[in-house]
């Protein structure tokens, strides 16, 4: 008796291994965007907008005096000094970022209601807000613009986060800015097209971004505001920028302001980058974030702290 043979063509095909683009899983040298620093003259108005309106939390441990305050946004912060000279610009009472700061907030309906309640405290300032189907655009009392998003996959698992800064930059500068970050800071960058405008995207860690959006609108003069980043390869970018005369501070941390065309040396945009290494004692500092729903009329034991994800 002859054993029957199986026809190999009748067997189910073994699925080919899924092709995964591993480059999309890479993380560049800029690991974390920790804070934005915006000088303003009035902590009362700042509290009305950031704490009452946006539902954020004042840091209870640092910058607790009358000359500075820190507003916690998940793992990130907004610093608001109100006195002392600026390090990188002319002394002024107010900083206005030339662009928009993107936040992830857990409940946009709650934010809209809170901004409406805070509005009487913010009369006669530049405060305004508008609710869209997918976001809230809000302007602080001194004209700084915020774009508030609900949690979404593009922001990872974060329910509360400082997600991005989008700067307004001159037409024709996006490609040069992307190259600068790629070669000077060893970042992952791309130039994307948003309608008629080119946008340089600089990846920060897994889900944060710096965006540089080209515009024909006039760019106001730089007034000394800054943001702070952590980078893994700390000495290489320092040497690169030092050789080109771009380092403006070199102590426990270092800083630079000018983003240049690497071929011509032309300044493409200015904003101070406060740059720290991963061994800095502030890296991964645990921040307090409150549950903004908790109040005198709606209080539950053990629910004071924010319970969502502040990952980034």
Number of domains: 1
What about the largest sheet? 8 strands, mixed
Please report the distance between the alpha carbons of the first and last residues: 67 Å
| Text of the CATH class | Alpha Beta
The residue-averaged pLDDT reads: 91
What is the CATH fold-level name?
2,3-Dihydroxybiphenyl 1,2-Dioxygenase, domain 1
Strand neighbour order, sheet with most strands: 2-3-4-1-13-16-15-14
Helix content: 10-25%
Structural class: alpha+beta
Please write the string of helix (H) and strand (E) elements: EHEEEEHEEEEHEEEEHEEE
Share of β-strand residues: 25-35%
Explain what the structure shows:
There is one protein chain. About 15% of the residues lie in helices and about 30% in strands. It is α+β, with helices and mostly antiparallel strands and about 300 residues long. The chain has a single domain (about 25-275), classed as 2,3-Dihydroxybiphenyl 1,2-Dioxygenase, domain 1 (Roll). It has an 8-stranded mixed beta sheet, covered by helices on one side. Strands 6-7-8-5-9-12-11-10 form an 8-stranded mixed beta sheet, with helices on one face. Helix 1 packs antiparallel against helix 2 (about 110-120). The radius of gyration is 23 Å and the shape is globular. Residues about 1-5 and about 85-90 have low confidence and may be disordered.
């Amino acid at each position: 008796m002859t054993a029957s043979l199986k026809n190999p063509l009748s067997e189910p095909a073994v699925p080919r291994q899924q092709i995964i683009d591993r480059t999309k899983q890479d993380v560049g040298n800029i690991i974390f965007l920790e804070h934005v620093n915006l000088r303003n003259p009035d902590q009362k108005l700042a509290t009305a907008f950031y704490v009452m309106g946006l539902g954020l939390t004042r840091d209870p441990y640092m910058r607790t005096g009358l000359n500075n305050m820190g507003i916690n946004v998940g793992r990130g912060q907004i610093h608001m000094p109100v006195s002392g000279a600026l390090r990188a610009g002319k002394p002024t009472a107010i900083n206005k970022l030339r662009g928009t700061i993107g936040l992830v907030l857990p409940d946009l309906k709650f934010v809209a209601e809170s901004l409406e309640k805070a509005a009487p405290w913010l009369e006669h300032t530049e405060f305004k807000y508008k609710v869209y189907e997918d976001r809230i655009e809000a302007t602080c009392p001194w004209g700084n613009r915020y774009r508030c998003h609900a949690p979404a996959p593009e922001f990872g698992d974060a329910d509360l986060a400082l997600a991005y800064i989008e700067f307004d930059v001159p037409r024709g500068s996006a490609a040069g800015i992307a190259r600068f970050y790629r070669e000077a800071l060893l970042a992952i960058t791309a130039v994307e097209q948003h309608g008629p405008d080119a946008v340089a995207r600089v990846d920060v860690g897994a889900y944060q971004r710096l965006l540089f959006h080209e515009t024909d609108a006039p760019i106001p003069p730089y007034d000394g505001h800054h943001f702070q980043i952590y980078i893994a390869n700390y000495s290489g970018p320092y040497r690169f920028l030092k050789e080109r005369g771009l380092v403006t501070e070199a102590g426990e941390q270092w800083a630079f302001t000018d983003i240049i065309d690497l071929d011509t040396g032309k300044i493409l945009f200015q904003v101070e980058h406060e740059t720290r290494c991963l061994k800095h004692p502030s890296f991964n500092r645990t921040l307090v974030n409150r549950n903004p729903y908790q109040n005198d009329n709606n209080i539950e034991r053990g629910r004071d702290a924010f319970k969502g994800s502040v990952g980034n």
